[in-house]
Request: fold
Amino acid sequence: MTLKLTLRELSVFLAVAESGGVTRAAEVLAMTQSAASQALASLEAGLGATLFDRVGRRLLLNEHGRLLLPRARAVLDQAHGLQGLFGGGAIDLRLGASTTVANYLLPERIAAFRLAHPQARVELEVANTRDIVEEVAAFRVDAGFIEGPCHHPELVVTPWLEDELVLFCAAGHELAGRPLTADELAAAPWLLREPGSGTREEVERLLLPHLGRFNLVMELGNSEALKRTVAAGLGVSCLARRVVADLLQAGSLVEIRAPLPPLMRRFHRIVHRDKTLTHGLRQFLDMAGD
Reply:
């Protein structure tokens, strides 16, 4: 069967989708505008479908384009993997991680990998769990490490590390130093991570069945800011023990005792089901370990 599309045409399609126009796509790909336009027209003719809505000077993905986009990324990703298959072991990884994982778990693993492979190039994108899931699904990163659940149908989710969450407040807070009932804990002023955060989802999953509700007074998009705001006396919260260990040891935060089971969760590793696991990516995933 004769192919009706080329990798060059898919590259132009992807560049137009990301830039919103042929002119910018041509600049990115170091092509003439006419060559980029011709490649896009050839792709649409070969597929028998238009891929963009023309809105003024902008090209916006239509239903066909949105359907093609992740598949085009997968094909180009696999092509890059083939191109480097016999290239002397060069490694170029794009990783994504949710905030807690990026700050407290991956740095030493990336450092160990770079020591073992000094020529390797590793990029790390940090965002909340929801955003990292979308990055992996769109092939913008090779693999993701997340702290929340993932049910995306196109991703392979593998349990990675176990983590303990801890309830805490400032040492001088009125709730410090005594056991709290579930009702007292529910009524306390709560500070939580933002919606979309894996920690937020896990805190809700583990605590809401016992507390019923949170008296939410503030949401913060960063765990460091959250723990320090709590340390300033504003309320109570729940984060990974490894995140608050420094302030617990310093005495500015204290654990809250309450009639609750251990608050344990699992971090997960995610890759796209169509992702080509290159030699370098396999090596990193093996080194990241359990």
Notes: The CA atoms of residues 130 and 196 lie 5 Å apart.
